[in-house]
Amino acid sequence: MPDLIRVAIxxxxxxxxxxxxxxxxxxxxxxxxxxxxxxxxxxxxxxDFSIPAYADIDELCGLDDVDAIYIATPTHLHxxxxxxxxEHGKHVLVEKPLATDLPCAKRMVEAAEKFGRVVIVGxxxxxxxxxxxxxxxxxxxxxxxxxxxxxxxxxDWLYRPRVPEELSTDLGGGVxxxxxxxxxxxxxxxxxxALRSVRASTGRWxxxxxxxxxxxxxxxxxxxxxxxxxxxxxxRFHSTExxxxxxxxxxxxxDCDHCYGSHRKRSLQLTTAEESVMKxxxxxxxxxxxxxEQGEHQPFFGLTLVSCERGDIRQSPEGLFVYADDxxxxxxxxxxxxxxxxxxxxxxxxxxxxxxxxxxxxWGMATLEVCLAVxxxxxxxxxxxxxxxxxxx
Length: 393
Description:
Blueprint: E1 5-10, H1 14-25, E2 29-35, H2 39-49, E3 53-54, H3 57-61, E4 68-71, H4 78-87, E5 91-94, H5 102-115, E6 119-121, H6 129-140, E7 146-154, H7 175-178, H8 180-191, E8 195-203, E9 214-221, E10 226-232, H9 262-267, H10 272-283, E11 303-308, E12 311-316, E13 319-323, E14 328-332, H11 339-352, H12 361-380, E15 384-385
Parallel strand pairs: 1-2, 1-4, 2-3, 4-5, 5-6, 7-10
Antiparallel strand pairs: 7-11, 8-9, 8-15, 9-10, 11-12, 12-13, 13-14
Helix pairs in contact: 1-11, 4-5, 5-12, 6-8, 8-12
InterPro entries: Gfo/Idh/MocA-like_OxRdtase_N, Gfo/Idh/MocA_oxidrdct_glycsds, GFO_IDH_MocA-like_dom, NAD(P)-bd_dom_sf
Organism: Alicyclobacillus fastidiosus
Keywords: Oxidoreductase
């Protein structure tokens, strides 16, 4: 059996509530400590798991009995926390996006190499079972060469309860950083990783939410394969209408008349302070009962459609539909593992040296480069060429 990896958790908000089951259920992981700036989260976590919870992430990183840090702190703090963990000799699992600018991302890549430690960037929806199965079909060559990839997602993201940094592009907020990172990761994962260029337009349609609420992106790979990524978080049309009523984590979307635009309407009635309190109450760790439950179907991060020379592929509720020349084939996929289970498995395999990971710090920097290129292309209304892309093979 591989050596046990003792993991400490930095940040006890939404990301940790989504990841925690996967960390706790992996036989090679032992969660030994946590940290949060909020006392109520520390007390609840320590009470549930009988492990120490600290107010200071510096102290967490300095613990001798910790091998790795899961960094689930706000995006604008990733650089400081990742570098601190690496300097203390810890491996790192960090939420996306890796950083908010390329120079800082390069520092993280260089530090990982200098200290000889693993950095894995996840969760992203490229860990979803249907996306990974799509990639397997594409790579098998059974449908001929890959030609197009499309990722379209419409949600209420912009109007869910937010703290101010989530609505500040400079701090890594807005849909291009927070949700586009998923789309660009999926597209790069399916297409082999190495994009050539980006042409994009972004939307800021509500002055009360002063960040990107939408984007339309055309991406081209070095081999000529093209892709589009469309996202709107303005809480009107939802792409669950195109995905069998199934949402991001495999759960069925609410089916009720009064639900339409509910987050958008509620946001109009809240002050910034009230909204921040609501977000922290919803996001913060309270009890194990609030951890993410696996949905009854496969996850749908909007509509993903892949076109090859001799067939198209899209998700079905239980797996994939493959549209071949003479018939439509449904491929059912097992639902025994969640996307977060796969994140943890890749991290464990990378630390133990049993696999060559995909979602490394360099991979995360390449996805960040796409996010930044989208923002720059929209600003300049020009095609932006990319320079830090990473191929999967």
